[in-house]
Amino acid sequence: MSEHLSIAVAGGTGTVGAHVARIAHDRGHEVRILARSTGADLRAGTGIDLAGIDVVIDASGAFAVSAGRSIEWFEAVTRNLLAAEHAAGVGHHIALSIVGAARAPYGYYAGKAAQERAVAAGSVPWTVLRAAQFFEFASANAIRLGPLTLMPSMRSQPVAAASVAARLVEIAEGGPIGDAPDLAGPREERMADLVRRIGAARGGSARVIEFPMPGGFGRAIRDGSILPGPDAQLDATTFDEWLASGAHSEA
C-alpha cells in the first residue's frame, strides 16, 4: 500500500470518475470531487480548490460531438486545472484519454488529442492513460429508430470502466510516468454485438443493425486506428463477466 494521498478527481461523478473516487477512498486516500455538484466549474475555471492536494485525476468529459467544441472544452479544462495545480503546488496531473485519439483526431477524439498535447506541454509532472472504449458506452453510442437500433461498425477492444479507474488510482500511487501503456480489455469485440447482448440482458428485443459511418472518423474506427498497441496492458475482466455482474443495469 502506498502512502496516504490527497486526490482530487475532476469529473468525479461520471462513469469513470465515480469509480476512481470510490476506489481511492477504499484504499485509504483522501478524495475531493471536482464537479458542478460540488461547486467546481472546470470549463469556467471557478471553484477549483486544490489546497493540500497531491494528485489530480482528470476523468472529466465534454458534452460535445464536433471537433471544434471538443477541442475548446478540453483545452480550457486542462488549462484551468494545470493553472490551479501550479498555484497549489500539486505534484502530479493524470489525464484519462482514449486509445488512438491522436490517430483519429475527429469529433470528440480531436478534443482528447488536444488534451494530451496540453498536458504534455504543461509545467505540472504528468501521466496520460489512454483507455479503450468502456463496456458501459456500448449502448450510449447506439442510434435508436423505432424498432431498430443502429450501431456504427467499429473495431474496439473495450474495457470495464471500473478497471480503468483502478489503473488510474495505481498510477496516482506510483508517481508521474508520462505516457502510460494503453489499457484495453482482453479481446477485440464488435460493438454491435455488445449492444445486442446488453439489450438481451435487459429483456429487450430490438434489432441491431451495424453500418459503416462515413468520413474520416468512420474509417478510423473501422481500420484498427483505435485498437491498442502491442505494448498495451490488457485487463482480465471480460464482457461476459461484466454483464454477469449486473453493471449493465447502471450503464
Automatic annotation (TrEMBL):
SUPFAM superfamilies reported in the protein's UniProt record: NAD(P)-binding Rossmann-fold domains (SSF51735)
Domain NAD(P)-binding as annotated: residue spans: 11-172
Protein name from the UniProt record: NAD(P)H-binding protein
